[in-house]
Design a protein that fits this description.
With 634 residues, the chain is α/β, with parallel strands linked by helices. It contains 23 helices and 13 strands. Strand 9 (147-151) and strand 10 (154-159) form a beta hairpin.
Length: 634
């Protein structure tokens, strides 16, 4: 795959700034132009052959670069952009280059994830043209942009002068090399006025135009002076978004990165260069201080510093990416010191746990769980670096039970504040080893048995057509998971009662250890069964969507909102049981348990209140219709 940047336009609305140079050379920050940013994005997604199509008078602006090659084209002021692309392809053909194209306008800035999503969908697909569709059109973009109409998974119409029925494109396209003949056909028909919209409409008629939904991702088209100002503001938000990794854990993605990127961007904007390795050492020092404070009994201060260490842990890598100063040594140093902090933090918590619980049997249990937690934490890092399937790794790191470092630090912090160290060790041990085993099984299925003399059955072909699941089947599955869930809720009460009873009898503490293990397994099973009940309920609501919408006359958006609130309420109610049992198992003080139960109840009531309001609004027309009928009868 090669990339072509179209930079042959005249930028008439940006004159006089575009008289002597192309608008793609307008700076977003001192020393970084729009073109610089586009090239950096293309490199990040793995494109090596980058070409820029520009006019003869602008050739000198690009010819001195080592990372792009220049294609000189003949373009007049009113020529279409497909004419520019056609000439660029002709020049490449003369050089013996024919490949799939990643096409981008030179006056657009966008998140790297837009291009990543496009490349992911287009790679290995059939001969198609793919565009990036933004359904959340913003103000003037609805007027300026190329409007798109889609039907299912295909684009059926595009144009500047049609209503934005489905959304607008974002200036990035994928064009298969098998479609070159269509480009030539459209140019022969439209001549120099041929545009990309003409190509899209021509290909749409034969059903070979797809799209990638990039709604919610940031991008900006630069056509006017006002657009320059908007782009320069948006640029910093885009940079911050680009620093978020696909493999980031749930806490890092939604909390830590929001803070760490503010710090990194602020340092970068101030032009204060701080060596990323120095930042790594500083964050390491904070983590070690947190461990020492917890070890000495200052749990609250240690917990706060542990959270601070977790938040700032991303700053070193972010600065390295912003300054293009990434090194293997830096990555190794960061990983090594993170593991040291993890071990010291868990060891400090274990020390406090031994101070609180001195009996031999409980110490034995805590030691085993601590060993599993600390070894699992190390193996998560090792497996993450060793696993070759990065897409599966991203999925694994963001799936429950979350085992990433950001989540582990947060769990450890909360447990330290509540003095519920056992709960933290149990969660970390289960999550990390579940992560490790899943990764190993995935690697095994991907060819880990290649050296073994076993016969592996090939995967069956997918069954087509694949109809929507019947609601009766889903109801059966919900009942199948709900019945053992109810039974386990009863059994775990018994197990916790036995644990509490035997813990008071010194000679029977070995039985308390057994009942603790039973209760732990039962709590884990409760979480698993509750998750499956919620999952099937979500599928059931999806299956019933069309019939419900048709019967009660609500829009799909309103129905989706009601379903989300209902599922959230059910999730909160279900989570109250394992949370309460886990706190009991961890010997959390009764006052803290009461506070936790109160908070869960309060949140559930708030969600219920908003759900009732939404339901009332959704059924308002039916209620009014019912009242009107009653009034007529009277």
């Amino acid at each position: 795959m090669i990339a072509i940047v179209l930079a042959a336009g005249y930028g008439t609305r940006l004159r006089p700034y575009t008289i002597e140079k192309p608008k793609t050379l307008i700076e977003l920050e001192p020393g970084v132009t729009i073109f610089d940013y586009i090239v950096a994005v293309l490199k990040e997604v793995g494109v090596t052959g980058i070409y820029v199509a520009t006019r003869r008078e602008f050739e000198s602006f690009f010819s001195g670069r080592n990372d792009v090659r220049v294609l000189v084209v003949d373009v007049a002021e009113d020529d279409g952009n497909l004419w520019t692309l056609y000439q660029a392809l002709s020049a490449l053909k003369e050089q013996g280059v024919e490949d799939d194209i990643l096409l981008t306008m030179s006056d657009h800035i966008y998140e790297v994830n837009i291009v990543k999503k496009l490349v992911k969908v287009a790679t290995g697909s059939s001969s198609k043209l793919y565009l990036c569709l933004d359904r959340l059109i913003r103000g003037r973009d609805a007027v300026e942009g190329l409007k798109i109409v889609v039907d299912g998974h295909s684009v059926v119409l595009s144009g500047k002068d049609i209503p934005p029925y489905s959304g607008i494109d974002t200036g990035v396209f994928f064009i298969s090399k098998d479609l070159y003949s269509y480009i030539e056909m459209v140019v022969n028909k439209k001549s120099r006025k041929a545009s990309l919209a003409d190509l899209v409409n021509t290909l749409a008629k034969v059903g070979v135009v797809g799209y990638v939904d990039v709604s919610g991702l940031l991008w900006q088209d630069v056509d006017t002076v006002e657009d320059i100002e908007r782009a320069r503001k948006l640029y910093w938000r885009i940079l911050a978004r680009n620093l978020v990794k696909e493999t980031d854990g749930i806490v890092s993605r939604y909390i830590n990165r929001r803070i760490s990127t503010l710090v990194s961007i602020a340092l970068y904007k101030s032009r204060i260069f701080m060596n990323p390795n120095i930042v790594t050492l500083a964050v390491f020092a904070i983590g070690m201080l947190a461990s020492v404070l917890i070890f000495m009994g200052y749990e609250a201060y240690g917990a706060l510093l542990a959270v601070l260490s977790s938040i700032l842990d991303g700053v070193d890598g972010e600065l390295a990416r912003l300054y293009r100063a990434q090194t293997r040594f830096g990555a190794l140093l960061d990983t090594t010191l993170d593991r040291v902090v993890d071990v010291m933090l868990l060891t400090a918590m274990f020390h406090q746990l031994l101070v609180v619980n001195a009996s031999f049997q409980q110490t034995l249990l805590h030691t085993v769980v601590f060993a599993l937690a600390i070894s699992g934490s190390i193996y998560v890092s090792y497996v993450s670096n060793a696993l070759e399937d990065r897409e599966y790794l991203a999925k694994l790191r963001n799936s429950f039970p979350w085992a990433t470092r950001d989540v582990r630090i947060l769990v450890a912090t909360i447990a330290t504040l509540l003095k519920a160290y056992t709960l933290a060790f149990i969660y970390i041990a289960i999550a990390t080893w579940f992560f490790t085993i899943r990764a190993l099984l995935h690697s095994l299925g991907k060819g880990g048995l290649a050296e073994a003399k076993f016969f592996v059955r090939p995967k069956p072909l997918s069954i087509t057509p694949r109809p929507a699941r019947a609601y009766t089947v889903l109801l059966e599955e919900i009942i199948t998971y709900a019945i053992p869930l109810i039974i386990l809720l009863y059994l775990v009460d018994i197990a916790l009662g036995k644990t509490s009873y035997y813990a008071k009898v010194e000679l029977s503490s070995i039985y308390a250890l057994v009942w603790q293990a039973i209760a732990t397994v039962e709590i884990a099973l409760i979480v698993y069964l509750a998750y499956n009940v919620l999952k099937r309920l979500a599928e059931l609501f999806k299956v019933l969507k069309d019939s419900v919408i048709e019967r009660i006359w609500v829009t799909p958006s309103v129905y989706a909102k009601l379903v989300k609130r209902a599922l959230l309420l059910i999730a909160i109610i279900l989570s109250a049981y394992p949370l309460n049992y886990a706190m009991s198992l961890g010997n959390v003080e009764e006052e803290l348990r009461d506070l936790g139960n109160y908070m869960v109840t309060a949140v559930a009531l708030i969600v219920l209140f908003f759900l009732i309001i939404d339901v009332a609004k959704a059924f308002e027309h039916l209620i009014q219709k019912y009242i009107a009928k009653k009034h007529v009868k009277v």
